Amino acid sequence: MTLRVVLENYPVKSIKKIGGGVFGGGPWKKDEVTVNGKALSLDDIEHGIMRKQYPSPYIHYMVNCASIGCPNLQPKLWTADSLKADQKKAASEFINTSRGVTIKGSDLKVSSIYHWYKEDFGGNNAGVLEHVKQYAKGDLKAAIDSGASISGHDYNWNLNE
Questions:
Q1: Exposed e or buried b per residue across 34-47, where buried means at least 16 C-beta atoms within 10 angstroms of its C-beta
Q2: What is the pTM of this model?
Q3: What is the phi/psi pair of residue 108, to 5°?
Q4: 110-127 pLDDT, tens digit each
C-alpha cells in the first residue's frame, strides 16, 4: 500500500510531503484500502491491526514507509512458511547498517524507530540494546560487548528511490 501511495504521488522527495497536514503531513491517516467492507488507513494496518493484534518488534522490519531511514523492503512476500527466519534476516540487515545503528566511540545512535516504538523493544534503551545485540555483527557487536550505550536517535525521511 505504501508503495502504491508513493507511486501515485511521484515524483515526491519524502512520503511526509504526501497528504498535507500541520506537522509535516504524510498519508498515514487517509483510508487507502477496503478489507471485508472496512476502510483502512496505513496507520490502521500498522498500529490498529499488526502491532495491536500481533505484538512483536519484528513488525517494524516488515512495514516500510519508503524512506531511507526504513528497514529494507524485502524482495519477497512475507509468508507463514518462512516468517520467523525472514523477520530475523530483516532485523539483522537493518541493525547492521548505519540506517539502523551508528557507532561513535562508545555511543550508539539508533534509528528513531527504536525511539518511537520503544515499548515494542522492551520499553527502554536497555531493551532496545538487548534486541540490537541479538543481531549485531562485526564492529557493532564489539562496541556493544565493550559497553557502548544508546546516546541518541536519527531518521532520514527522504524517499528511498
A1: eeeeeebbbebbbe
A2: 0.91
A3: -115, 130
A4: 999 999 999 999 999 999
Residue with cell 516488515: 62
The amino acid that residue 13 corresponds to is K
- Measured CA to CA, the distance from residue 89 to residue 98 in angstroms comes to 16
Tell me whether the omega of the peptide bond preceding residue 27 falls within 30 degrees of 0, making it cis. Answer: no
Give residue 2's identity as a one-letter amino acid code: T
Q: Residue for cell digits 515526491?
A: 12
CB distance 109 to 153 below 8 Å: yes
Task: Give the residue among 116, 91, 119 at the shortest CA–CA distance from 28.
Answer: 116
Residue 57 Cα distances to 18, 22, 27, 108, 134, angstroms: 27, 29, 23, 19, 13
